[in-house]
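Intended use. Records like the one below are meant for learning the mapping from a protein sequence to its folded structure. Do not use them to infer anything beyond what is encoded.
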Amino acid sequence: MNYQTGLAETRLNDRVSQDFSGFNQSHRQENFSALMKFNGHGLADLKDATLMDRVDTKYLVATNQLNDLLKKLLPHYTALEINGSRMFTYHNTYFDTPKLDFYHQHHQGKLNRFKVRHRDYVDSEKGFLEVKFKNNKGRTIKSRIESSVACVDGEDETEFLKSQLREAYPKLQASQWGSYQRIALANESAGERLTLDLNLSFSSMDSVRRVCLPDFFIAELKQNKHDLQSPFAREMARLGIRPKKFSKYCIGTSLINPALKSNRFKTVLMAAQKFH
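Structure written out for the chain above:
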């Protein structure tokens, strides 16, 4: 079984529960307890750590390391809390051209590239149409408008996409659905955010092919500029965990479309398979 097929044959549940799915009961309680020890913050508390224009560094971390990691990060970060919850479910609908131009441009290593998605913040019952632009300086710039439905052909959505994509991609269609649960930490004084995305799942829009990745999570450090003195970056170095380039859209697309060329992502796909 190769690295791509092995992951793609794993099936996901229709709805990922919000109680640290993938952990046994004792580990669920340990993770919940560790997360609740953080001081909390609300969305309005973030000023220097909003980071809509940023550099990102991603790491793949084994799920069974979450509890120890949270304990190490406790003195340095606060946890986002909304309506008493500190773990949030996100549903993403990604859009691409019929020929999957966004996917192929990333696979070819093109800079100044786009991704388009609708993100449903399930817990707060809000949705946004978002455009992420990766420029030739390696910075990620995110723009978005509020949009309750995952579509790109409404009047507001069309106008927004024209302004962001410069009319270069007039025909977009839903190409992938994804879901995960997020813990969102922040260090306001350092102006950095850290997101931990667990229980990643990807599905083709017709639901014929689905994949779930419960054995590792994506830790993404978001900064104004790369700073290896970040408490999280130092902890990753101590654990010997090196950064990985992991695009949820591209990895998900390659897993649910095994016939697609995916050589550029082979290293990260093999790394993901090692957790499986």
